[in-house]
Amino acid sequence: MCRWMRSASMLWAAGLLLATALVGPLFQQHMFSSLAHRLPKSPPSVYPHRHIHGRGMADGVRIHLPEGLTRDQLQSFRPFKEWMATLNRSLARQTTASHPFHADPYVLRSITVQSFDRFGGNRLGFVKLAASVSNAAGESLPGAALLRGPSVAVLFMLIPDDSDDADDERYAVMTVQPRIPAGSMAFAELPAGMVDDAGSFKGAAAKEMEEELGITITDDHQMTCLSELAVAGDNDEGLATAMFPSAGGCDEHVTLYSHERRVPRDQLRDWTGRLTGLRSEGEKITLKLVPMRDLWREGARDAKALGALALWEALRREGRL
Prior knowledge:
The protein is an alpha+beta fold and about 325 residues long. The chain folds into two domains: about 45-145, no CATH class; about 150-315, Nucleoside Triphosphate Pyrophosphohydrolase. Helices cover about 30% and strands about 30% of the residues. It has eight helices and 14 strands. It has helices at about 1-35, 70-75, 80-90, 200-215, 225-230, 265-270, 295-300, 305-315, and strands at about 45-50, 55-65, 105-120, 125-135, 140, 145, 150-160, 170-180, 185-190, 190-195, 225, 255-265, 275, 285-290. Strands 7, 8, 9, 10, 11, 12, 13 and 14 form an eight-stranded mixed β-sheet that branches. Strands 1, 2, 3, 4, 5 and 6 form a six-stranded mixed β-sheet that branches. It is globular, with a radius of gyration of 29 Å. It starts with a helix and ends with a helix.
């Protein structure tokens, strides 16, 4: 009986070894084949960022780039340059003894660019990255960011020229257009647009009014920068004088302007339902007139409308408009 059990055990062990020899390579081949679809085709480019320096920067901060994006392209991307400059100043402030992180300051250690989008051919539009920021204790700060750059929005108001009381009859112009990121085909918002590399904020605002509203601004004094009038206080970090609608995940900041003009009453009807926008850029915009007293309700989903309305009303209460 014992001899039979020993023989059975030996046969079982031999069978196991044979099965391992036959199946093992097939299993390994399957595993590596499966992993091959998950691994990148080529390793990302890694560069030391020679232009990052300062108190809050680790020596040899490295930038990891995906395939198709070069270091020169990233460093010439205006949103990246401005984001880096602002972050550098903010980290450097930790040297001040009164700073809450002075005892164990945070340091930028690396940047990984995860993806990017191009607009109009080769122009860099969006950059998604993850910045590694931590202190000596190993505590880290959330560093995921979508870089897209600054934008402008305009609170454009129309007043009938025969109205004796402008406050009684004042209309805000809103645009209604598809906004796929919001899942909407008819999103109501203030006229707005991005600021390109060469443009100024006021110039971008005037350009948007011409493209979306058909209004030409020839005098800089016709445009009032609500953001500049409202923002005050400590700005040692060098933050933009603008509204940050999503500071937890995006660098975009919106400079808010206002503009008003009197028009013949019969022209007010012409504004409602007017089709505008640059068709060559996929813009399909319908204009909508909203009484100022209803703007908070009509624009409740639009941060630009709520921000501009709040600043406009507060500045008027203080007699600064």
